[in-house]
Write a structure and sequence with these properties.
Blueprint: E1 5-6, H1 20-27, E2 34-36, E3 46-49, H2 58-61, E4 64-65, E5 72-77, H3 80-89, H4 99-107, H5 114-125, H6 130-136, H7 140-149, H8 152-166, E6 169-170, E7 176-177, H9 186-213, E8 216-221, E9 224-228, E10 237-240, E11 248-255
Antiparallel strand pairs: 1-4, 2-3, 5-9, 5-11, 6-7, 8-9, 10-11
Helix pairs in contact: 3-9, 4-5, 8-9
C-alpha cells in the first residue's frame, strides 16, 4: 500500500483536544499503514503499524488525500458477507443489483422494510438465533424458511463434525480456522467461515481490480479500499472473484470527498 496524507481543518482545536488526524495533518508527512492477518482466527485485518484507519469515522476519512493531489476513491464491496453466504449455500442464487431487495422479494414477499431485511440478513452471517431474528422484525415462519433454504443447520452440522474430527474448520475459500473455543456455538462456526471468506474475497478482488486498472491502493478499511487515480472509478461494477470460482461480486465506488 502506498502512503496518503491528511488535510488540515480550518479551525484546529487546542493541542489537548486535537485528534489523531489533526496531528497527522499538522505534521504534513506521508502516512503508511501496515496490516496483519495473523492476530485473528479468521484472518481479519488489524493495523500492525501506522494510524488506526479501521476505526476512522466517515468524516475523518474524507480528510484523506494523496501526496500528489490525485483524487482518492473509495471502493466498497456491496453486501460482501451476505453474498458469500447466499451464493455458497444456494449455487443458483442471483443477488441482482441489490441483494437485500432480492432477499426481500424472495423470502419476505417484498413487504419488509429494506433496513429490516438488511439487519436480518447480516445477522444470519453472524450466526444469530431464531429468537434474535424474530426480534428484529421477521416472523418465525419467515426465519424457518430462510434457514431451511440456506441449509444452515446442515452447514453447522458439517462444521461441527469437521471440528470434532480435525480440530479445525475450513472456509469456502479454503482457509483453515481453529476456533477459540473447543465447543463453540453453531452460529459462531458459521460466522467464522463467512467472515474469513470475506477477508479472502475482498483482498482478491482489490488485488485484481488494481492490477486491471492501474489504480494505486492507499488503505484498506474492512470491506472497502481507498485508491488513487486520475480517472474516476466506475460505479456499480461487477468483478469475478478468483478464489470462489464462478462467483461474481459487485462493488460500488465513489470519491471520498463527495457527500
Amino acid at each position: 500500500l502506498q502512503p496518503f496524507r491528511v488535510t488540515a481543518q480550518d479551525n484546529l482545536r487546542s493541542e489537548k483536544a486535537m485528534s489523531l488526524w489533526d496531528r497527522y495533518a499538522q505534521l504534513g508527512d506521508d502516512i503508511n499503514v501496515d496490516y496483519s492477518m495473523c492476530s485473528t482466527i479468521t484472518g481479519r485485518l488489524i493495523v500492525s503499524s501506522g494510524p488506526s484507519v479501521l476505526t476512522a469515522t466517515p468524516e475523518e476519512r474524507k480528510r484523506w488525500i494523496c501526496p500528489n493531489g490525485v483524487p482518492l476513491w473509495e471502493i466498497d464491496l456491496s453486501a460482501l458477507e451476505p453474498t458469500i453466504l447466499f451464493r455458497s449455500q444456494i449455487p443458483d442464487f442471483d443477488p441482482g443489483d441489490d441483494l437485500y431487495s432480492t432477499v426481500n422479494k424472495l423470502w419476505f414477499n417484498a413487504e419488509m422494510p429494506r433496513d429490516v431485511v438488511k439487519q436480518v440478513t447480516i445477522s444470519l452471517c453472524y450466526g444469530a438465533s431464531t429468537r434474535s431474528l424474530v426480534s428484529i422484525g421477521a416472523t418465525p415462519e419467515q426465519v424457518k424458511q430462510l434457514v431451511d433454504d440456506l441449509k444452515l443447520k446442515h452447514l453447522a452440522k458439517q462444521l461441527r463434525e469437521e471440528l470434532n474430527d480435525t480440530g479445525r474448520i475450513t472456509s469456502p475459500t479454503g482457509r483453515p480456522i481453529k476456533p477459540k473455543s473447543n465447543n463453540p456455538r453453531s452460529g459462531a462456526l458459521i460466522n467464522n467461515i463467512i467472515q474469513s471468506s470475506g477477508v479472502d474475497v475482498s483482498l482478491s478482488i482489490f488485488h485484481k481490480m488494481c492490477g486491471l486498472t492501474g489504480y494505486i491502493p492507499r488503505a484498506i478499511v474492512h470491506d472497502a479500499m481507498y485508491v488513487s487515480g486520475i480517472q474516476e472509478v466506475p460505479d456499480n461494477l461487477r468483478i469475478e472473484c478468483d478464489i470462489l470460482k464462478g462467483k461474481t461480486f459487485r462493488f460500488t465506488a465513489k470519491s471520498v470527498i463527495d457527500d
